[in-house]
């Protein structure tokens, strides 16, 4: 196994288990371990956090908002800056509530509550969102925890929106994309595991200095696994033939 840095991708859920994957990054991107944690099971989150602490990853990518959005005076409606930037590029995204909005519809936002808890607990053990302009691994910089968005990761890497992952073609395309990017794991996959893998890949791109944040930092930033130069102004839906062509041109550089 390559003795490169280790990163973790974490897909957050509330009505089903959260899925975490540890990836060793070197000449290959090799999955070394999987873990699940069910928010409905007392102590499961703590056990997953203990597993993370034992591995001491360089970066953790979490598929969830890092905190509620700010409440504006008078209750004015707004999107987080990072979400607005995604929508401007025609990338769909969940809208993040204020804390008051989340409390009023706690069941609807249960998975976001779980994500907020993970960010908070990881912050307590030294993992922090990177400061603007900070270099990965910079002297004195805390280990990084990133808000990532796997759907946007697949879109920006392929140059367009692939078929939905709820379809057989969309699911298969995501598997092939991750394989093409160099990720190695066993044959098992589902929606959550693929999102966890893309979260880990985005964390690896951050280590390489090849990830880009969207947002102004006040409500949090979303990290994408492409450089600012590679980021496009808009993304159109991809037909299956177009998605296959995009996949053929994709590779590890």
Radius of gyration: 17 Å
CATH class: Alpha Beta
Largest sheet: 8 strands, mixed
Quote the beta fraction.
15-25%
Q: Give me the CATH architecture, please.
A: 2-Layer Sandwich
Tally of alpha and pi helices: 8
Strand order of the largest sheet: 6-3-2-1-4-5-8-7
Q: Looking at CATH, which topology would you report? A: Nucleotidyltransferase, domain 5
How many separate domains make up the residues? Answer: 1
Q: How many strand segments?
A: 8
Shape: globular
Structural class: alpha/beta
Determine the CATH superfamily.
Ribonuclease H-like superfamily/Ribonuclease H
Helix content: 25-40%
Distance N to C terminus: 20 Å
Runs in which pLDDT lies below 50 for 5 or more consecutive residues are: none
The H/E string reads EEEHEHHHEHHEHEEH
Give the integer mean of the pLDDT values.
91
Q: Can you walk through the features of this model?
A:
- The chain is an alpha/beta fold and 253 residues long.
- It has one domain: Nucleotidyltransferase, domain 5 (2-Layer Sandwich).
- Helices cover 36% and strands 16% of the residues.
- It is built from eight helices and eight strands; from the N terminus they run βββαβαααβααβαββα.
- The chain has helices at residues 44-55, 81-88, 99-104, 110-124, 150-158, 168-180, 191-208, 240-248; strands spanning 6-11, 18-25, 29-37, 59-63, 144-148, 183-184, 212-214, 222-224.
- Strands 6-3-2-1-4-5-8-7 form an eight-stranded mixed beta sheet.
- A hairpin with a 3-residue loop joins strand 2 and strand 3 (29-37).
- The chain starts with 5 loop residues before the first strand and ends in a 5-residue tail after the last helix.
